[in-house]
Amino acid sequence: MLKIDDDKRASLVQKGALEIDGDGDEVLTGLSLAESHFFLVYEEHPAETHSAAETAAYLQLKHKHLVARTAPLLPSQPK
After folding, report:
1. Which residues pair with 20 in a beta bridge?
2. d(CA 3, CA 63)
3. So what's the pLDDT on residue 77?
4. C-alpha pair distances (Å), 47 with each of 56, 60, 63
5. Residue 19 forms beta bridges with which residues?
6. What's the pLDDT at 79?
7. What is the C-alpha separation between 36 and 63, in angstroms, rounded?
């Protein structure tokens, strides 16, 4: 289970941003457990405390997460 309070958990579930992965771990949609942990820890701290590499990793994970969340909303592509 991710270390988030009940209000944030409820909000993430409502938005479709939280799921249970194949291993039974609570994760952010589209991310692994380790990626989810990094993402949430990154967001807890002010932006100026992060290195450029951390920010780049966070932005890649944010993109991955948002794509996974929105993919079910997109019309299927013809084959």
Report:
1. 26
2. 22
3. 62
4. 12, 15, 17
5. 27
6. 63
7. 13
d(CA 40, CA 20): 16
pLDDT of 1 reads 82
Per-position DSSP letters for 2-62, written without gaps between them: -S--HHHHHHHHHHT-EEE-TTS-EEETT--HHHHHHHHHHHHS-GGGS-HHHHHHHHHHH
Burial of 17 (0-12, 13-18, 19+ CB in 10 A): middle
pTM above 0.90, yes or no: no
Largest CA distance in the chain: 46
Distance of CA 36 to the CA centre of its chain: 5
Mean pLDDT for each 10-residue chunk of the chain (79 residues)?
92 92 95 96 90 95 94 68
